[in-house]
Amino acid sequence: MAEKKTHFVLDDFVPYKLMLVSERVGAGLAAFYREEFGISRPEWRLLAAIGHKEKIIARELAEFTCMDKVKVSRGLQGLEEKGLIARSPLPEDQRAALVGLTPAGLELYRRMVPRVLEWEASLIDCLSASEYRDMVNGLDRLLRRLEEL
């Protein structure tokens, strides 16, 4: 029996395109905040998550940031060494720590957010308003679909 040939064009494969966009955006943004603010990609992801949530249990950061526990632990250690976060044990569970930004961390977060939003704006300025809206809606739908699968 002859083997069925499947026509496959990698450049048209949606998971491949999403991976390319994600990696290139992540690398570009990582270079930006490393050069401008002196923090690493994992540190930014954690700083952004903690700033967004205000306070979060350390173990929840892995799921929230889609980072493995080792990267989260190293990133938190780096942020703590830089004086940008503080951990405090939860009274009901001494093994768990609540993580929050220090005044220096909050000040950095407040300086970074407008700059990363400017970076984002320069990235998406090639899209019309309707293309941007459709892209965001499509990505949201894909995320919901992935939760269902």
- Cα-to-Cα separation, first versus last residue: 34 Å
Percent of residues in helical segments?
55-70%
Radius of gyration: 19 Å
Secondary-structure element sequence? Answer: HHEHHEEHH
Shape estimate: globular
- Judged by helices, strands and strand pairing, the structural class is alpha+beta
CATH 2nd-level architecture of the domain at 26-112: Orthogonal Bundle
CATH class of the domain at 26-112: Mainly Alpha
Binned strand content:
5-15%
Keywords:
149 residues; alpha+beta; Arc Repressor Mutant, subunit A
Structure report:
The structure is a single chain. This protein is of the alpha+beta class. The protein has a domain at 26-112: Orthogonal Bundle (Arc Repressor Mutant, subunit A). It is built from six helices and three strands. It has helices spanning 14-37, 41-53, 58-65, 69-81, 103-124, 129-148; strands at 55-57, 85-90, 93-101. It has a three-stranded antiparallel sheet. It is globular.
